[in-house]
Amino acid sequence: MKLVGEKGVQRILMITALSAISSLLLIALFIFSEGLPFIFKYGAGNFLLANEWDPNTGHFGIFPMIMSSVWVTLGAMVVGAPLGIAGAIFLSEYASPIIMKIVKPTIELLAAIPSVVYGFIGVMVLAPVIRNNLGGPGLSLLAGCIILGIMILPTVISISIDSILAVPRSYREGSLALGATTWQTTHMVTIKAARSGIVASIILGLGRAIGETMAVIMVAGNSVNIPNSALDSVRTLTANIALEMSYATGMHREALFATGVILFIIIMILNSIASVAIRNRNAKK
Amino acid sequence: MNIKFKIENLSVYFGKEQFLNSVNLEVEANKILGIIGPSGSGKSTLLGALNRMNELEPYCRTEGTILMDGVDINSSTYNVINLRKKVGIVFAMPVPLPMSIYENVVYGVRLSGVNDKKRLDELVEKSLSEAFLWNEVKDRLNLSGLRISGGQQQRLCLARVLAMEPEAILLDEPSSGLDPISTSKIEDALNQLKEKYTIVLVTNNTKQAARISDNTAYFLLGDMIEVGSTKQIFTAPLKKETDDYITGRFG
Ligand SMILES: Nc1ncnc2c1ncn2[C@@H]1O[C@H](COP(=O)(O)OP(=O)(O)OP(=O)(O)O)[C@@H](O)[C@H]1O
Ligand SMILES: [Mg+2]
Fold this sequence. Notes:
The complex is a heterodimer of chains A (285) and B (251). With 285 residues, chain A is mainly α. Chain A has a single domain, classed as MetI-like fold (Orthogonal Bundle). Chain A is 78% helix and 1% strand. Chain A is built from 13 helices and two strands. In chain A, strand 1 and strand 2 (59-60) form a beta hairpin. In chain A, helix 3 (63-94) packs parallel to helix 6 (141-151), helix 3 packs across helix 7 (153-165) and helix 6 (141-151) packs antiparallel against helix 11. Chain A is globular and about 70 Å long. Chain B has 251 residues and is an alpha/beta fold. Chain B has a single domain, classed as Rossmann fold, CATH 3.40.50. Chain B contains ten helices and ten strands. Chain B has helices at residues 43-50, 80-86, 101-111, 117-130, 134-137, 150-162, 180-193, 206-212, 230-235, 240-246; strands at residues 3-14, 17-28, 32-36, 60-68, 71-72, 87-90, 168-172, 198-202, 215-220, 223-229. In chain B, the strands form two sheets. In chain B, strands 6-7-8-3-9-10 form a six-stranded mixed sheet, with helices on both faces. A four-stranded antiparallel sheet of chain B has the order 2-1-4-5, with helices on one face. Chain B starts with a strand and ends in a 5-residue tail after the last helix. Classes of the chains: A mainly alpha (285), B alpha/beta (251). Chains A and B meet through helix 8 and helix 9 of A and helix 2, helix 3 and helix 6 of B. Magnesium ion binds at residues 43-44, 92, 172 of chain B.
């Protein structure tokens, strides 16, 4: 029994693919068409570099949000990258294959935990610990960095492991046969050979961190200011859109779309860097 | 006669299966011992026991003793890192490390803490010359070791072992896949090197063993069938299996 022929299957797949791609393109187009005119009208310099965000008085400077996003993301990297890379090295080079078979899928599963759960843990556990031990409101830049650092771990670990395991066995054997220890082999040969994949894992993690919204809104405190310390409450670009979109109209609404444009551009740049890094890795083999 | 390795009752298992059956063999110092035998007879496994590279397989088990200058290198108390510095190996399919030719050669010595640029430069020239590679690469030492030809890579892997100034060198089919010119370069190198080192040469090419080894051992299905001077093995073997193999009647 044959419902659709080879030609028919091909056509259906093509239509699905085209509608998927075109809906993504439409969204991008929509964001840009709503946001770009505002940037030109208001002035890119005023928009990007001014400190005051007060929609009621018509002030739309997103510099504090940009700085907060940058700090939260960098902080997440400081927390997540060393942990993730060390974990990947341990699992791929030191742990027995059985442990690796159990732990790696478990870590990848962490990526499937909804971000509201991470945020909830941040609010209930992490924020009080920070408030009681370090001071400040608790809901802070530091809390955001730690929660996001944990959230990017699955990305960093799993892509790093894949690129470490892709290093040919003959490199390790050659090094060990010359009297190198496992650690010498790991840092002088394996990590160097896997370097671009590891870099890509961090950049993809960064992309995830800068785009994360729910968890950050819950733990970072959300006041609009350029952070002076890690204990300050901050509001990121994503949080700004999510918090104000429900009531924004007119200029305010356009400013939020323009914020989306900026996020879009940042993430596109990060992803391009990551894919160049991954392509380099493949070219080297 | 000076014995470098005295192998006694050496058995190697991968998992439950045994692939070397209680092998007894002596390797003379400053001589080339040729190991011949059909594919799968355990030649590479023997080399892997001599510098304990077999241990990288978690399911590999090695029994028996291997005395190197009278000390059992197979005992768990013997430092395997030091062993691998003293007993260098060139694998059957040698792959340079993903770094420059220069860095490939000095990799092992750097690990031992030598960092003096002048000393390293000397070592690079000396080792590459001994491996008959210097003239071909001396103008491009910064080129990646992966970018030179297969035969050159093989000699680079020999050079990186020579730079360690080991006591013994294990070679696993060093001229498989090489043209006659590259092969004779390697053989020339080995003939000079045996003055300084003890060499164990696994080869699938019986003619090569006849050409350059001083002694020859014949392996079959994990058993060491016969060992003797190359002349004796190739002209008057004691065992019928050996005779069948070298005259090409094997199988
Ligand atoms: N890592 C391993 N795991 C399981 N079995 C192995 C392993 N290495 C070798 N063997 C087995 O040990 C036996 C001997 O292998 P070995 O590589 O020593 O043969 P060889 O004489 O070097 O053959 P060739 O001339 O083809 O290189 C083979 O049957 C092989 O399947
Ligand atoms: Mg072999």
